[in-house]
Amino acid sequence: MRTRIIEVIFFLLLGILFLHPVNSGDFFHHITTGRDIVATRSRPRIGTWTFTANGKPWIAHSWGAGVLFYFVHTLAGYDGISVLFAGIGVLTALFCYLSLKNLKVAWLIRLIIVFVTASIISLRWPSRPEVFGPFFVSFLLYLLPQIKDRRRAYLVPLIIWIWSIIYGSSVFLGIGIILIYGVRLPILLLSLVAALANGYGLHSFFYLFLIPKVADHVGEWLPMAKALDPASPGVVLFYQYQILIYSLYTLTAIMLIVWFMLRNRMVLKTHIFFLSIFFALFLPFVSVRFINLAPVLAAPLIALLIARLTQKTSVAAVIIFLCMGIAACVVRFATYPVRTGLSAIPFGSSSLQYLSDFNITGNIFASQELGGYIKWRIPTSYIFYDTRDDLYISTNVITDMKRLSQGQTDVRTLLRTYNADIVIGEIDHAMYTPLLYLNTWKLVHVGESTFVAVQASVAEKYGLITFEALDPTRVPPAKPGKLTEAKAEMASVLNRDASAENYIRMAEILLALGKTQDAIRMIEHATIDSFQGMISPIVNLGLSEIRAKFYLADGRCNEAKTALIATEKYRTRPFIFSPHNQLFSAVNRYWGQYYIVCERDIAKARDYLLKYAIQTTNARERRNIEELLDTLNK
Predict the structure, then answer these.
(1) Residue 217 confidence class, pLDDT cut points 50, 70, 90
(2) Whose CA is closest to 140, among 296, 336, 369?
(3) DSSP conformation letters of 492-526
(4) Which of 305, 332, 571, 595 could lock onto 604 through a cystine, CB 3.0 to 4.6 A?
């Protein structure tokens, strides 16, 4: 009885590892597919949501998951979706535990190996159908040793069929597992038929092999070694600890195998099936997205081998793996909040709420991550693209967006080519700046991280207020010579969206107008309350740096120094892999200003400003610093 109570508590606690808000743009194209299937009573064969790939062939390889998501959301909203994904994680761990129990692994070793496995796979447990892959694998590993009972044997094709409907693109893994296991021929044949009976046949079964070009554009398909380079600081922060922990976990597991190869090779031969699937542990080194699958396949052999070690060696191995699990837990809790609902980043965007409030529809140009969410929230709209990468491989859409982000083409050319009516643009992307200076396009909303611009005819049609002086992509966020007008427009923006970012934008305008005290009062409103997870160092770095800038402008040296010290902390602490040893920032520039204004130490000021002149990629900024350095030298 006591053991059963411990097990119940154990799995309830494991549920916390998998509980987080809906955090993937991919989720929304699946749930929108589910909504369409329920409405039309048919599976899609072509893309119908976009103004760039309309009519192109498309396979909804996870249509069952989409329908499931839609019904759960209808009944329980985003909270229900979060609980659903946590439940899938717990069931994955439970069947892993039961399969180890079938193998007569000792109770304590079972608990520890399942804890480690759950901790590792929770590092990548997105709100996407891919999490059904580990679940079905763990269930199959539990079921296969029991197929000597003929009645249970025929559960295998049934499970394969459900798998093919829920997440058809990974069902080939199930077929591979039962092939290696060596099931009877009738069961194998029935399983093959079941794998193809999901409405799309071979196209769904071989989906992953039919889209090899996706890896060229999508980071999660890259090998671990390439996932961090080139990558943005946010991506590096997200992946680096996952990659480090998984690499150490794999190394430890391989050392365990080598130990038995040298000491007792017969043990490995006795468990040839589990040895065969153990080598799936290397899959994440081919594609980082398999981090949530490989440990499930490796767990049985790891547990069996630890159970065969001598007591002293077994304790040492258990402690090492336990440390891995604890480290993975720490990283997981630093990556995602433990709560339900919808993630504020990026789906809390006020830009989407703005379009929804005014019922604005049309051809919407936005990021890939937001595409599916836009179609979910505004069904009558058409999107530029979303996370269905396979739909766009035969078009120029992904290539054109890549060229735009690299500065090889102009956003105005792209909008004309694709006939967009509305743009939701990222404010920190300079590629959108030219759009704001066209007479044919109007800025109508500025949110925390995105803005909305529409064609002039759309603004007139919906009677929208337009902002003629604001340019949120600049610092200060005003068009040249229009600071006073921008201040009035920014006040109007704050009335609708009083986000920390908009308070900072207003402060920048006030500082440029010489209203330093008013600017600092605005900065004091700029606090980031929402959970930022792994990217919190980037957010806190930006806030500390901005505060230092404003305090220096007001001559408040003590506050400026405190902010600069905080900036240094957030800048250097978070990275472990080269070349991202530290976040780039203007902190060296502000330290230079601090030593000029506050301590009158010209030598130290010169050192910091020289570092900044070397760091900055802004040619105008570099010239200004070089001129200041010449003045200091004289």
Answers:
(1) low
(2) 296
(3) HHHHH---HHHHHHHHHHHHHTT-HHHHHHHHTT-
(4) 595
